[in-house]
Amino acid sequence: YATLSAVVKPQESAFDGKEAALLVDELRTSFNTGRTRSYEWRISQLQNIAKMIDEQEKSITEALYQDLSKPELEAFLAELSNTKSSCMLAIKELKNWMAPETVKTSVTTFPSSAQIVSEPLGVVLVISAWNFPFLLSVEPVIGAISAGNAVVLKPSEIAPATSSLLAKLFSEYLDETTIRVVQGGVPETTALLDQKWDKIFFTGGARVGRIVMAAAAKKLTPVVLELGGKCPALVDSDVNLQVAARRIITGKWACNNGQACIGSKDVSRIVNSFHFKRLESMMKENGVANKIVHGGQTMEDKLKISPTILVDVPEESSMMQEEIFGPLLPVITVSKIEDGFQVIRSKPKPLAAYLFTDNKVLQNRFVENVSAGGMGINETVLHVTMKDLPFGGVGESGIGAYHGKFSYETFSHKKGVLYRSFDGDSDLRYPPYTPEKKRV
Ligand code: NAD
């Protein structure tokens, strides 16, 4: 990947509050000209994103490899092709999404008509995480553009090659007067969060989510928080265990959800030594290390941890209390499946919850009684790829949702509009309310 260093240059100048204010000002001025509102502008930007993905597949794949050792096939399936299909869906459906929706009127307003009209919010900020650094950056931007907003993207500094490539590609392919990338970490994000936005869309952990929400509250800015947490999978005893195990393992490791991924021949490294040490100490904790039934090997110089399964890990351990975000899978045993429902309900609401059973009654009970951002029955993670399903958390796992039309709606304001003519006016509704009027 020698070519990449020529392509990817680190950010040259510091980005502070003054620059952030200038940037937002510039984008707001462009937004106020109305250029982002037209169907034509939205479509042209979406088409350019699709073109960028097609033409830059190699450089994006290389950046993902450089940042995360992401295997090529996984980069293509989980990041490039997934993002492209969201873009193509938006191009196909945009006219329908933008069309005002006519609704019924009431006798009080007769004669009249009424519509729900979508309008762009204005200038929005997208802050993304490192584990799917291309998808988690571009997918919300597709929603922001579809809805006619100006947008600033702040990708994760923990995936620096992808972050700089996004900055370079956005300036080459997209309208620079309304769509921009700011690279950087905490100081740059803090400078951005101090500005007045019309929406902040954040993907990351709950700790930073709280910082984002507190900053947004100062300006009364609405937020979407796409957070994480633990995603439990419950397995009934009489299911096809081989299929259940394969699907859980795939969800955990093969698509980066455990952070590390099993590609065709290799295991990705842990993203950095901070996370390596965090995971290693989780595994070595008292009462946990002796619960390993598979894996457990670590290679600090290569930042690698093998896929590791642990059975009956103590409830009070940090592995059971904190988000793992790594290739460690603790399994706990319950005497009946409903006890598993109770375990999930006793913890913060997860981003996703999974149940493996053929029992339809149990399936219904799970869907009705367990709260989670999303669910998979006899499957893991694949619900995320369905563009007709909203993707987002509930409670501690997040606020708001996106994907497909939900992305468009997330970045739009639904304006209720009542239309009347000057006909049919009546004195009855206007004061003074005389006794004669009351009798009528
Ligand atoms: P993070 O919260 O550490 O960082 C996310 C973003 O916030 C980054 O762009 C980072 O630069 C910025 N940031 C970090 N500290 C900040 C601070 N003090 N002030 C302002 N900005 C700050 O998350 P991460 O490590 O990049 O990603 C991992 C987390 O993201 C996990 O918790 C995971 O569950 C979650 N996640 C959620 C989804 C989802 O779609 N719900 C997807 C991927 C990852």
Automatic annotation (TrEMBL):
The keyword Coiled coil does not apply. Belongs to the aldehyde dehydrogenase family. It comes from Brassica napus. Residues 19-264, 269-415 form the Aldehyde dehydrogenase domain. This is Aldehyde dehydrogenase. Keywords: Oxidoreductase. Transmembrane segments: none annotated.
